[in-house]
Amino acid sequence: MLEDQLLQVAKKFGSPVYVYDSERIAMQYNRLAKAFSNVSQLKINYAVKALSNLAILKLLKTLGAGLDTVSIQEVKLGLAAGFTPQDIMYTPNGVSLEEIEAAAKLGVQINIDNLSILEQFGTKHPQTPVCIRINPHVMAGGNTNISVGHIDSKFGISIHQIPHLLRIVENTQMTINGLHMHTGSDILDIDVFLYASEILFETAKNFKALTFLDFGSGFKVPYHAGDAETNIEALGKKLTKRFNAFCKAYGKELTLTFEPGKFLVSEAGFFLTKVNVVKQTTSTVFAQVDSGFNHLIRPMLYGAQHDIVNISNPNGRERFYSVVGYICETDTFANNRRITEIAEDDILAFKNAGAYCFSMASNYNSRYRPAEVLWHGGEAKLIRTQETFEDLLKNQVEIDI
């Protein structure tokens, strides 16, 4: 999106506000689909946890996506957005058997990642096809909080436990129709991804009724100029060749499935804030904005770097600023960052704000969660209103004190 379009949004809807560009989402979806166009059956399941607004889900549905969900609530959001149960994968971690059974009743694809629940579910529901999430013990990810395929991870069934897994399947006579892996986010080395894929292929030989293999996602997107990203096109060529060869050896065409979240929506998103105060101290110039890590926690939680552009003065002289929020503790978006000269009331745009920004927002300090806007068809469309004081009180119960 252009600076003047973003300024239009800020003027119309105020700040802070999240803005998403539908064209960018479609471009990323089509890029991934094209990279794997030589696979006979491809399924792209959008990871709802990245950004769960119904308008975004409906947009992705029009592009042909399915959904990857991690909670019963996300399953219900997908159904509310018009997805069929057959287009929804449910991949929880550490949830109760009751929640998994509730999802199964809704007809979605179940994906189980531990032996205990697998045995319990298989014993009670042997006729329900199940996907199994394996842990390939391959380390990938740009931060320890988003690296999920290593040996100490809580995710997946270890490849060293395959004999136990096979015994459960044999004893329960349950049907395993898919295998799944996810190594982590911000994958750069496609050879590491391909190595993990070989483990999935090898494991798949133990199961005769598979209809799909889910390779997860975690593709890295660039966060600033010159930043590296996953070479999707190179991965597409190499993995397609290997996948097609496996299907031929397996004896039937399987569906190749991915579950991208950040890859599809991150670069489409912008977070707009207004500068409340420019504060000069003895060593630093602070730009203090009308937001905080209650709205964009990634810099504080993951050490993530989001490009920040002063869209009120895009061509001004560059100076160094530390951009900080209004939360009553350390609340830093950027330290000593080069940004065009900032004045009070300027609008700053944080890039790559489509994934894990609103979805991780909170009411910390009793602040409202902002509005969300979709730039679609050349106009800004409100897709979530800003919260109000009544929203803060909504679920509280008054008692006599």
Automatic annotation (TrEMBL):
Presence of the UniProt keyword Amino-acid biosynthesis in the record: yes
Family matches, as HAMAP family: LysA
Underlying gene: lysA
Function in brief: Specifically catalyzes the decarboxylation of meso-diaminopimelate (meso-DAP) to L-lysine.
Enzyme nomenclature, EC number: 4.1.1.20
Biological process (GO), any one: lysine biosynthetic process via diaminopimelate
Keyword Lyase applies: yes
Protein's name in the database: Diaminopimelate decarboxylase
Cited Pfam families: Orn_Arg_deC_N (PF02784), Orn_DAP_Arg_deC (PF00278)
Domain Orn/DAP/Arg decarboxylase 2 C-terminal: 18-354
Quaternary structure (record): Homodimer.
